[in-house]
Amino acid sequence: MSYARPKFRHPQLPKNELGYTQDYYEGSISTLCAGCGHDSISAAIVQACFENNIEPHRVAKMSGIGCSSKTPAYFLSHSHGFNSVHGRMPSVATGANMANKGLVYLGVSGDGDTASIGMGQFVHAVRRNLNMVYIVMNNGCYGLTKGQDSATADKGSKNKAGNVNDFESINLASLALELGATFVAQSFSGDKTQLVPLIKAAMKHNGFAFLNVISPCVTFNNNVGSTKSYDFVREHQEATSTFDLVPHKTEITTKYDEGTTKSVVMHDGSLIQLHKLEEKWDPQNKLSAMTALENAKNKGEILTGLIYINEQSEDLHALLNTSDTPLNKLTQDVLCPGTEKLKEINKTLR
Amino acid sequence: MVGLDKVNDFVVKFANVNGTGSASANLLFTKSIFRMGLYVSPKNFFPSNIQGLPTWYEVRVNDKGYIGRRDGVDLMVAVNAQSLKADISEVKPGGYLLYDSSKMLYSEFIREDVNYIGVPLMEMCNKEFADPRQRLLFKNIMYVGALSALLDIEFAVLESLISEQFAGKEKLIAPNIKALKLGADYIKANYKYPLDIRVERRNLTDNLIMMEGNAACGLGAVYAGATFAAWYPITPSTSVVEGFMDYCAEFRNAPDGKKNYAIVQAEDELAAIGMAIGANWNGARAFTATSGPGLSLMNEFLGLAYYAEIPVVLVDVQRTGPSTGMPTRVQQSDVLMAAYASHGDTKHVLLFPSTPKECFEMTADAFDLAEQLQTPVLVMTDLDLGMNDHVCAPLEWDENRKFKRGKVLSAEDLDKLGSERYGRYLDVDKDGITYRTIPATHPTKGAFVTRGTSRDEYATYTEEGPPYERNMERLIRKFETAKSYVPGPQVYNHENQHDHGIIFYGTSTQSSEEAIDLLKQKGIYLDALRIKSFPFNETVEDFIAAHDKIFLVEQNRDAQLKSLMMIELGIPSKKIIPVLNYEGLPITADFVVKGVEKKLVKKRKKSNSIG
Description:
The complex is a heterodimer.
Chain A: H1 37-51, E1 59-63, H2 67-70, E2 80-83, H3 89-99, E3 104-110, H4 111-115, H5 119-127, E4 132-138, E5 141-142, E6 148-149, H6 172-178, E7 183-188, H7 192-204, E8 208-214, H8 230-236, E9 237-239, E10 241-246, E11 261-265, E12 271-276, H9 286-298, E13 302-309, H10 316-320, H11 332-335, H12 339-348
Parallel strand pairs in A: 1-2, 1-3, 3-4, 4-8, 7-8, 9-13
Antiparallel strand pairs in A: 5-6, 7-13, 10-12, 11-12
Helix pairs in contact in A: 1-7, 3-5, 6-9
Chain B: E1 9-17, H1 22-35, E2 39-45, E3 54-62, E4 73-78, H2 84-90, E5 91-100, E6 115-119, H3 121-128, H4 132-151, H5 155-165, H6 173-190, E7 209-212, H7 213-223, E8 228-231, H8 238-251, E9 262-265, H9 269-281, E10 286-290, H10 292-297, H11 299-308, E11 312-318, H12 335-339, E12 349-351, H13 356-373, E13 376-382, H14 383-387, E14 389-392, H15 411-416, E15 449-451, H16 465-482, E16 490-491, E17 500-505, H17 509-521, E18 527-531, E19 533-534, H18 538-545, E20 549-554, H19 560-569, E21 576-580, H20 589-610
Parallel strand pairs in B: 1-4, 4-5, 5-6, 8-9, 8-10, 10-11, 11-13, 12-13, 17-18, 17-20, 20-21
Antiparallel strand pairs in B: 1-3, 2-3, 7-14, 12-19, 16-18
Helix pairs in contact in B: 1-4, 1-5, 3-4, 4-6, 5-6, 7-8, 7-13, 9-11, 17-20
């Protein structure tokens, strides 16, 4: 591992619409283990932001505590980040989002941070339809404390020490769906072709966009018998569809067979183009999405790709009817009722 | 029988069943006396329950300006059969008991030294009102009518209060007035009136207001420009955010009908403060309100905000702990936890309001202080101040006052830095306070990762000792700076004249001030100081140094502010003599007098035996 990122860049690196090259979206060098799935997800985030033409300073990177929560330092160095408290990222993200509705809130969490200590905050952020991207880098174990099983470890899965997990696992995608998440997707850190467009679509979604990304822990949970290892996930990944995100006003070039294609228009006018691989699955039908997840589980497969989307949903700001001007931009003349009003209030207090 | 003969100096207590609408009738009674220009101090003693349990409302009436609680009931309005026996035993000898004589009072309820005034409330209500809900509600209004005759309350004042209350629902005015009259007329027909305890118009309170502290905190947050509140319901703090909500609904509507504020009811107190911190981090003024158990849960986040230096305002309406304690009773028992909340080395800025006016001002100040000092600021109020009406001076807001947002760099500021590297935790001004940036301020400059882990001056993660130590030392330097930012103590004497001093804070203030007067009458003279904030400044140190003994009045068992003074100012334990009330009811002047006397007598006895 090298500790200094080389500064040399090819002069003809492609630029996006804003004139930035992809390396502008990178962060400081990762201190995670070599081969960690999380680093691949960070790279996918970098690529997604680059391709989505996002102004880095308009992104707020939010995280809790754990290996996954360290990653915001490893992408988007021109964005503000908040590496908060274990399991409490959703609340901090909620407050940040309330203060300024104009930014992209990119939350990164782990399976311990979300499915155990942070379960309470996670479920409530979902049900409020907070406008954010919530990525769980899910490896089924606690990395920083050296490999204990997490609540997403599958029943019967074997950890590095050879112990078999006897407890039911929490399926975060099913849970998010049940709680009313308006965008639910699953992916695999090793499948960049699928992951990048999913992150891009999640960022364009107006509401709570949940991405459960299986991200193997090379050090503590990549052994034979683990259901979160690279080998296992590669062998058992079953995609719902191939997936393209077509920006607004762009010509659609991909052609699929009639009847297997589905298009979803996003909030900003861009288009999700799906080529369905899973029959009887309709991403805009919650029941069908749940069935697809459950079927995959019964077959011992991991269903990946977009699972569900409701692109018509109202986010928390809409539900609370907050002003168009972000709350943190409102000035004293608008906010403070002033001396005369106070005199009137005093009169009512007699 | 001997009467009491006390004009404008008595206590009336109402024994009701909760959930029967007595609160508005009792408030009507209090307001009528307040409108006659007298000081009133109403206190609710309510159970942690919604309907069916005993609840009491006690009003002290006074024309000397004392608004602390006073022991002893001169007149008991006993309309709750469940608590009747205990209620009767509370009446002072020679006092009065107004009861519902619709049913006969058994002999076991008769005390020879109490005057009984029976009014057939239920019977009259059933006869005069057909609607069952009205029968229940007007029973209460009817006893207020009876009291107006007994205590000589001007009927016109009651009438105008009723008309104001039901403006817009005019058809409710007539039946209310009718109920008042029925009560008054019954007294006039059957009893000698007014009693020897009664009111005389004084017009002393014409320029004062009456308000609950929690509503004042909510209004203070509106005036300070808070745009976001996150909270979890908990007695007795709930009405802080409800107050904020009501005032926002009135003052914070955008022309297009949208809202210039957001309020989120969180899933718990952890999330509530997390949200408030997130919003402040992103440049909005935001707060939360809670009480003891909630404050316990917020400890971890308070540590983060202290260490990562994020402003946040927390209104702590203290109640009786530990654990669930007595959730509807008062204490000042969160002081130590608040001062040092969180693991690791932390210290927090605390403000101690003692009136609704100060609740308003200090909540507004808290937002300035939090942003100037980039740290949590806790407004330490309590159940008595928060949930009872208090008479105080009118609220004031200086038209020229500007929000103090502290050291926040704008895009222009960042541009001016040129090639100089921005350091989030770089102590440029040597006052411990560094410059922060709000997300999305500048396209290329000023971004950093906020974290609870150690970092260097440039917000870069590090586990090295020296930068960690430098940072912790700077935080102490900042806390020193805070001493000149927070409101100083109230000093009662221009110079320290006496050997002994007395210190108090928050809702111990009114009773302590009265106690000082009472002690004077007994030849005991004390210099006084009221603590308004933590950290303590030099005035506090000087006051303690200038006296050989300090009485410290608090409403907790462990003398928590005393501990804080010992730790922070190095005061020897023996120098501070605690006077501690922690039964859950507001402290009285008598209690303070007795506490001081007892300790002085003990000391005198000791010195005699030595001598």
